[in-house]
Every structure is written in structure tokens, then in C-alpha cells.
Specification:
The chain is an all-alpha fold. About 40% of the residues lie in helices and about 0% in strands.
Amino acid sequence: MNGNIQLGVLAAILLGMLAGCSSRDPYARDDVWYPTGAPAANLAAQLANPADLAGGRDDPRQASAASVRAVNRIWADTPKALSDSPAGQSTTGGGPAAAPAGGN
């Protein structure tokens, strides 16, 4: 009988200890890792202008009007058709089929 009482007391103590663990907020704990933003800070430190990460900037040396028109056509789902000129034709395939190796 004495062994059952000791086992009950031990079980009550263990349950009390486990109940205390559930009340700890994992984000408020100071003994676990939490994100600090260090990778973003390291990347920003390597840039000439860290604001470029958020928005970027124009390059006055590049004519971007053609690129803008092309992207707008893609977004509007109205791309231009491919030209039929020799420069626009593919050079992959279209020739005679090769004879099988080791043929009889």
C-alpha cells in the first residue's frame, strides 16, 4: 500500500511539472533561436544603396521602351507573331532523317 501512495505522489509531481511547461510562450522564451533579420542586413550592407532592395532604380544608359512594350504585350496576352524571315527560322531539325547505325 505504501508503494501505491509513493507512486501516486510521484505521478502528481510529474503532472504538476508538465503543466508548468505548457504555459511558456515559445516566442517569449530567451533560450531558443528566433529570427533576427541578419541575412537581410548582410545583403543590404553589401549594396551601394540598400534602398535598391525595396524598389530598384532606372538606368539612364539603357533604352527600355522596347522592353516595356514587349512586357506589356505579354501581360495583355497579345504577343507579336514570329517573323517568316530566314533569321527567324529555326536551324534545329528539318533535315533528312539519319540512317540507323549498324543497319543491314
